[in-house]
Amino acid sequence: MKQLLYMIIFSCLLPFNLQAQKIIIGTKAFAIVYQRDVEGHLQQIYLGKKLSDTAGYRNINTALSPAYATGGSTYLNEPALAVKHADGNMSLVLDYVSSKTSNENNNIVNTEIDLKDPQYPFFVTLHYRAYQTQNIIETWTSIRHIENSDVILNRYASAFININSQQNYLTHFYGEYNYEMQMHKFQLAPGIFSIQSKLGVRTACNYNPSFMVSPNNDVTENTGEVFAGTLAYSGNFDIQFESLQKNVDMGNSLKIIPGINAYASSYALKPKENFETPHFIFTYTTNGEGQVSRNFHNWAINYGIWNGHQKRQTLLNNWEATYFTFNQDTLVNLFDGAKKLGVDMFLLDDGWFANKYPRDNSRAGLGDWDANKKKLPDGIGYLVKQATAKGLNFGIWIEPEMVNPKSELYEKHPDWVLKAPNRPEHLYRTQLVLDLTNPAVQDFVFGVIDKLMKESPNISYMKWDCNRSIDNAYSPYLGKDQDVMYVRYTQGFYKVLDRVRAKYPNLDMMLCASGGGRVEYGALKYFQEFWPSDNTYPMDRIKIQWGYSYFYPALAICAHVTAAGSESLKYKLDVAMSCKLGFDIMVKKMSERDIALSHTVTDNYRRLQNVINYGDLYRLVSPYKTNFASLMYVDSTKKKAVVFAYNLESIEADTYPELKMNGLDPNKKYRITEINLNSGAKVTFTENGQIFSGETLMEQGLKWYLKWARTSSVLELEAI
Questions:
Q1: pLDDT score of 62
Q2: Low-confidence ranges of the chain (pLDDT < 70)
Q3: How far apart are CA 107 and CA 105, in angstroms?
Q4: Residue ranges of the Glycosyl hydrolase family 36 C-terminal domain (predicted)?
Q5: What does the pLDDT read at residue 21?
Q6: Among residues 187, 275, 171, which one has the least CA distance to residue 546?
Q7: Which pLDDT does position 246 carry in this prediction?
Q8: Where a domain ends, among 614, 638, 668?
Q9: Per the structure, how many domains does the chain have?
Q10: Residue 146 is part of a domain; what is its CATH number?
């Protein structure tokens, strides 16, 4: 008995990390590892390349790296979670309780880690879903309690990531209307930097909730250590980067804290209620920024967007041809133009609805979703039938969350609008936001889609727009409970979309919000694609689409050929074809030769869609570093590839870039053919039709062959 007692005492004196269980959450390429410390708290002990021997994951950090830092207790920096308990206590401690891992299928491994406050019946579960092939981890947090009354959640992040490094370079994406997704890279200084939104809706308009972090400034497309993440949330977000230098407890480290913005969003959590945070999706690689993109694209196509493997429809939109001024015959006549271009679908944009206050401009009618009888006496169903008869699918524009004061809806339901009492009504784009916290408004918004589909079941596509943010924020439905308004609005938005997708799973939908104001994976799980910007000038679009390409796959990025810009039609076609091709153009003003070229490019896009939309992306020449741009897509078999090359504002003194390709099989031979040319047109690629080894194309590359400003070329590579 005495010997057994000695053994127990001796085992308790052993170094704790020899006994503590490691929680390894990993993919094929990288892992994040946790371990309980001597006080029972969960610490992150590793984030990096996956090790072949799990014993190699050791806690070598002298600094604290909490798995999910809490406020009000002994942690003195920015917390992931801060609460006020039912008794008013503002401190929170979370001890490790248990964890479990299960295989959802051959590719997805789920892990749950349960934490609890030792003094309060307050519980947190950290969730992780590891996608093995895609090398992506998705994480989120669920929070609950059984205290005797509400607990106030003052901060409630989705994750808390520790990066132990003396210096870190952050790349994030900023912008404004017409200049979305501009890239900016800089070294994080000691202190806190935040990417955040308080816009309520269109929340990604100024900052996209995506970023990359690297310990070195010289990271490239193909080399270098990168941690990258994006927050899947359609409401106000806040991604904090707290850079600590020479900190006594935390050492030299970076704390990344993504989640819902705490601004005006204290959440009263009821006993037994479960609150789930937005999902944070991240990856890690030592193979540069290009691998980050390929990881996210692969994940998005398979898991992140609606019907990711569905072929995309090319389309002709009527907006630039008609704006608000059209009638039934005008639209039917445009169908012939769509057929000439060879597209799959005609998309009817704004201006088709409202009768008492006709939608003849942006100042009236929004909210009254009945077809305008003067413009469309036979209704939307007639247009659908006419399009179908011509071999075209039919799509339609909606903006169901918004209302004009000059509308029947506003006259009947002024209480359905978000606006602060005792404040002047503030219009933006002459409209207001409907109160999606209200279940009756949710029913109405769902009813807009449901009514259209019931009356015209053959509608195949909807462009869901959202053209203003929330200001003077106040929900008449919530009354005095305004602290949760921003959160409840987003929850209401998702409830509507859940209903839409449950009833109409095969309906294609484009996500639009004055361009790219809603581009993030919280909404994209309901949409096939998005409108990245109202700016369709090709020179600007190259940079905009370049920025989106870091986190979003080409098949989701709608790119339309329009009248914007003085570039040639070929240039515009080549820019649009690198993403998801469409047209918004007056076909009747096009020459027969231009129509023929457009049809050729549409056919090429359709023929090569498996490569462009589902192949691996390799960015070759950056428009942020040169006056040129080039990118390529390679299919999974490495038998086909497509290369896009653009001159921007090149001048005679320019040093032309190297055009070294990537992703090919070095042992294969490839014939290179220039495409997207009119019949009889002269090729710009002087080595057209020649054969090169994959090794030569990747190691030596091609001589840059575009010599004039605003010229472009598309090359098709085929293994022989």
A1: 67
A2: 1-20, 62, 651-654
A3: 5
A4: 629-715
A5: 85
A6: 171
A7: 77
A8: 614
A9: 3
A10: 2.70.98.60
